[in-house]
């Protein structure tokens, strides 16, 4: 019997081995396909971020080369510093993207306390003053400055994401709503009162309100809150226009916003120069590098007002293209948040999305004189190493959430 089986095997060995090889190959292929299709990486999001970073570097060099040569005798001074920050940020983004996002859940309270403790440090010898404001902390031995407000934005996203999960349905009640809004207030007040950074305080508060808004299906209280905010803003504008000097510095900015030509050499100077840049660009712009306003006419051309230079050099076409890139970025994050494996991941993505959305809208609104002037950078594009590093860390968190999404759910 055994010899018969062996003789039969020898006669058909080639056929048996081929059949066994095919079976193993099919099994490996199925297993490989299963592994490949289990999770995915959002290359669209990564491409958009890299495009915005590259475009930002080009525009920073274009907007700052003249001023950098006058001040430092190096036209690429600002470009080099921003490039260094981008490289560090990209490394941190890759590291964070490859760490399971639930790892950070245990640090939510520590992050909150650290962000609260860092803001007062700007008043110590470690604080760095620039343009009349102390908003940065110098890291000894590294040569980098960190803005505590950027740390606060990231830590607030993490903290509120965990709090929403812990409170569950309780966040929908008025008590839960008040608790969620109350937690960010100490950080918001610290950022505003200590660093005099109104725009960052608004962003931290805006991130908080947006995350609670997404977590709560009852929109009535948010509508009431929005109406109260508009009423308070209208009251402030009325008091300023009527001559009340209860907020002299901010009041002057409001007056210059309402009528920039009333003080064209002081408070209205930056607004007017930015509008001149936007208006002179036309539809297709003067051409890359051909801006006139960056030649010491427009203050902070490479930073807060870089969108004006984009409009002047690339015209309406370039401005709309950049806005569309931001829309695509936000759309990709909406897709990731909608398909996140759990509530914690979804809320983190919502927080990052809120941060980028609020900051981009405020920057463009300031540049176009839609709202009063306040220092705020355009995400990924404006000069600012601290800002771009923490934005890239936030993108790393989004990519980490995206990597845990199963393709069959999309």
Notes on the structure:
This protein is mainly alpha-helical and 410 residues long. 68% of the residues lie in helices and 3% in strands. Helix 5 runs antiparallel to helix 6 and helix 13 (306-338) packs antiparallel against helix 14 (343-367). The protein is globular, with a radius of gyration of 26 Å. Residues 1-6 and 27-37 have low confidence and may be disordered.
Mean pLDDT: 83
Assign the structural class, choosing from mainly alpha, mainly beta, alpha/beta, alpha+beta, or little secondary structure.
Answer: mainly alpha
- Catalogue the unreliable spans: 1-6, 27-37
Radius of gyration: 26 Å
Number of strands: 3
**What is the percent of helical residues?**
55-70%
Number of H- or I-type helical stretches: 15
* Share of residues in strands: under 5%
Shape: globular
Order of helices and strands: HHHHHEEEHHHHHHHHHH
Major sheet summary line? 3 strands, antiparallel
Strand order of the largest sheet: 1-2-3
State the end-to-end distance: 56 Å
